[in-house]
Specification:
Length: 134
């Protein structure tokens, strides 16, 4: 595959991964995530990563992943995810307690053999705090 085809394949895989998350199709996660995936330098493996996502959904039942910006090459994906949701209690140490918040996550993925092998995720906690103060 040439560079453009590899980028297209990476973006396509990522869109399918986001659809998998939004459908809560946890059994399909291994199609997109490497068995030994690492999240923010913590080796979780696909089952630990799944548990992290399931916990996120328990804490935020209406969690919906909306990829505003996606930039990719053959080995990396960068994404700006937008969330408009209502965390049940505390979120990132902020007492949200069922209030609607809008915030962004910036996620950077390293791909290996066409799957997500490493994730670096940064959430805009300042935006969450500002939403709660309104």
């Amino acid at each position: 595959m040439n560079g453009s085809s590899q980028e297209t394949a990476a973006v396509s895989m990522y869109k399918q991964y986001i659809a998998c998350l939004n459908a809560r199709a946890w059994n399909e996660l291994g199609e997109f995530v490497a068995t030994d995936v690492v999240h923010n330098e913590r080796p979780l493996g696909v089952y630990g990563y799944r548990a992290l996502l399931e916990e996120n959904v328990r804490d935020i039942p209406d969690l919906y992943f909306n990829a505003d910006i996606v930039v990719a090459n053959a080995s990396h994906i960068a994404s700006r995810l937008r969330f408009d949701c209502t965390p049940v209690q505390e979120f990132l140490g902020v007492p949200v307690n069922g209030r609607r918040v809008v915030f962004h996550e910036h996620a950077f993925y390293t791909l290996r053999a066409g799957k997500i092998a490493e994730v670096f995720s940064v959430i805009d906690k300042t935006a969450v705090e500002a939403e709660v103060r309104r």
